[in-house]
Structure formats: structure tokens, C-alpha cells
Design goal:
Helix content: over 70%
Shape: elongated
Radius of gyration: 15 Å
Oligomer: single chain
Mean pLDDT: 83
């Protein structure tokens, strides 16, 4: 959790708020990648693309 707080502090102090949507998209695609690796959710993810 300390990594997340340090990242949030960095983004706020350096005025890099434009990075937040980029990080959110990376996390979304990373989560989809993890779910698609041999899970029961995989066929439903493939229909999205």
C-alpha cells in the first residue's frame, strides 16, 4: 500500500494528473490479461474483442 500512496503523492505534487487515466487503462488491460489466462471467464472476454 505504501507504493500506491507514494505514487499518489508524486502525481499530486508534480501535477502529473494526466497520468491517472493512462494508468487506469494499463490496469484494466492487465486485469483482462490475467483473467483470460485459463479461467472460466476467458470465453466471455474473447467475445468483447
Amino acid at each position: 500500500m505504501s507504493v500506491l500512496t507514494e505514487l499518489a503523492e508524486f502525481l499530486l505534487t508534480r501535477k502529473k494528473l494526466w497520468l491517472i487515466p493512462l494508468l487506469a487503462v494499463f490496469l484494466l488491460f492487465g486485469g483482462l490479461f490475467v483473467l483470460s489466462q485459463g479461467s472460466a471467464v476467458a470465453p466471455f472476454i474473447y467475445t468483447l474483442f
